[in-house]
C-alpha cells in the first residue's frame, strides 16, 4: 500500500512532466490557428467595411432617386390634382346644381328623398371617374412605402378631372354678333366648373382639355360660332342652312392646353354678318361639352 502511494506520488508529477511538451505544442497550434482565424476575420471585416461603404453610397444614391421620384410624382399630381377637400366641396356644389336642374318640378317630399339620391349619383359618378386615379394612388403608395416621406401629402391629394355637358333649352330667334351662347341646361357638370348662367367653363388646373359644340341653324340662314379661350378664338364653325328649307346642324371638336383660370366658351362670330336663328328644342339640341384629357 505504501509502495503504491509512493509510486503514485512520484508517478503523478512525472506523468505531468511527461505531458508538458505535448500541451505546449497543442497550445502553440491553437494560437497559430487563432492567429490565422483572427487574420481571416480581420480580412473579412475589412471586406465587410468596404461592402458597407459601397452599400451606404448606393443607399444614398437610392434615397436621392426616391426623393427625385417623389418630387416628380408630387409635381405630376400638383399639375392635375387638387386636394380632396376641394374636390369634395365641388362635388357637393355639383350635386346641388344637379338637384336644381332636375328636381325643380318635384314635390317637396320627393325632392327631399331625391336630393339624397342625386348626391349619391353624383358621388358615384365621381367615384367611377376617380377609380383610375385611385388605382394610380395604390401604385404610388406601394412605390413610396420604402421612402416613407410626405406620404400624407400624397394621400391628401385628389385628382380634379372635370367633365360637363350642357345644352341650350330654348331657341334664340335673334342671335347677335359677339354674343356668348349660354348653354343653360346642365346635364353633367362633374367638378362644377361649367357655369350655366354665363355659359363659361373655368379651367380648374393646367392640363389638356377637349371641347365639342353643336349648333343648329335655321333654314335659309347661317351662323358662325367660335370656341373661345379667354378672348382668343381657337375654333370657328359655320352652320349653313342656305338653300335648304329645313334646319341644319354642325359640330366641331377642339383640343386645347389650358392654364388654371382660363375661361372657355362658345360665342357667335364678333363681326361676321349672321343670318339665321339659333335653334334648340326637344329633338334638336344645340349643346356644349368639355372634359379633361390629362
Ligand atoms: C413612416 O413615418 C412615420 C412618421 O412620419 C412613422 O410613424 C412610421 O413608423 C414610418 N413607417 C415606416 C414603415 O417606417
Ligand atoms: C366682343 O365682346 C367682348 C366682351 O364682351 C368685347 O371686349 C369686345 O370688344 C367685343 N368685340 C366686338 C367686335 O364687339
Q: How would you portray this structure in words?
A:
With 294 residues, the chain is of the alpha+beta class. It has 2 domains: 82-159, no CATH class; 163-292, Sandwich (Jelly Rolls), CATH 2.60.120.40. The chain contains 5 helices and 13 strands. It has helices spanning 2-80, 84-102, 108-129, 131-145, 151-155, and strands at residues 81-83, 157-159, 163-167, 185-190, 194-195, 200-202, 207-217, 222-229, 232-240, 248-258, 263-268, 278-279, 287-292. Strands 3, 4, 7, 10, 12 and 13 form a 6-stranded antiparallel beta sheet that branches. Strands 5-6-11-8-9 form a 5-stranded antiparallel beta sheet, with no helix packed on it. A two-stranded antiparallel ribbon has the order 1-2. A hairpin with a 2-residue loop joins β8 and β9. The protein is rod-shaped. The chain starts with a helix and ends with a strand. 23% of the residues are buried. Bound molecules: 2-acetamido-2-deoxy-beta-D-glucopyranose (2 copies). One 2-acetamido-2-deoxy-beta-D-glucopyranose binds at residues 178, 270-271. One 2-acetamido-2-deoxy-beta-D-glucopyranose (NAG) binds next to loops. This is C1q domain-containing protein. Keywords: Coiled coil, Secreted, Signal. It is found in: Secreted.
Amino acid at each position: 500500500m505504501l509502495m503504491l502511494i509512493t509510486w503514485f506520488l512520484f508517478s503523478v508529477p512525472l506523468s505531468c512532466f511527461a505531458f508538458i511538451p505535448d500541451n505546449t505544442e497543442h497550445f502553440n497550434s491553437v494560437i497559430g490557428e487563432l492567429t490565422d482565424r483572427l487574420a481571416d476575420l480581420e480580412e473579412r471585416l475589412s471586406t465587410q467595411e468596404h461592402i458597407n461603404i459601397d452599400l451606404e453610397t448606393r443607399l444614398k444614391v437610392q434615397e436621392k432617386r426616391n426623393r427625385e421620384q417623389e418630387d416628380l410624382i408630387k409635381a405630376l399630381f400638383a399639375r392635375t390634382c387638387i386636394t380632396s377637400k376641394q374636390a369634395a366641396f365641388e362635388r357637393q356644389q355639383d350635386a346641388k346644381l344637379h338637384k336644381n336642374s332636375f328636381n325643380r318640378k318635384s314635390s317637396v317630399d320627393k325632392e327631399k328623398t331625391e336630393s339624397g339620391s342625386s348626391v349619391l349619383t353624383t358621388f358615384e359618378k365621381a367615384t367611377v371617374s376617380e377609380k383610375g386615379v385611385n388605382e394610380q394612388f395604390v401604385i404610388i403608395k406601394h412605390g413610396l412605402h420604402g421612402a416613407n416621406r410626405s406620404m400624407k401629402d400624397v394621400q391628401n391629394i385628389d385628382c380634379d378631372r372635370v367633365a360637363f355637358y350642357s345644352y341650350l333649352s330654348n331657341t334664340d330667334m335673334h342671335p347677335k354678333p359677339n354674343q356668348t351662347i349660354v348653354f343653360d341646361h346642365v346635364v353633367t357638370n362633374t367638378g362644377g366648373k361649367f357655369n350655366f348662367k354665363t355659359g363659361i367653363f373655368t379651367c380648374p388646373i393646367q392640363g389638356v382639355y377637349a371641347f365639342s359644340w353643336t349648333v343648329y341653324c335655321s333654314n335659309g340662314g347661317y351662323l358662325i360660332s367660335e370656341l373661345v379661350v379667354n378672348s382668343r378664338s381657337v375654333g370657328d364653325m359655320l352652320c349653313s342652312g342656305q338653300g335648304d328649307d329645313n334646319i341644319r346642324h354642325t359640330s366641331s371638336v377642339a383640343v386645347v392646353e389650358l392654364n388654371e383660370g382660363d375661361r372657355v366658351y362658345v360665342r357667335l362670330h364678333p363681326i361676321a354678318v349672321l343670318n339665321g336663328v339659333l335653334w334648340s328644342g326637344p329633338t334638336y339640341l344645340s349643346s356644349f361639352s368639355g372634359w379633361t384629357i390629362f
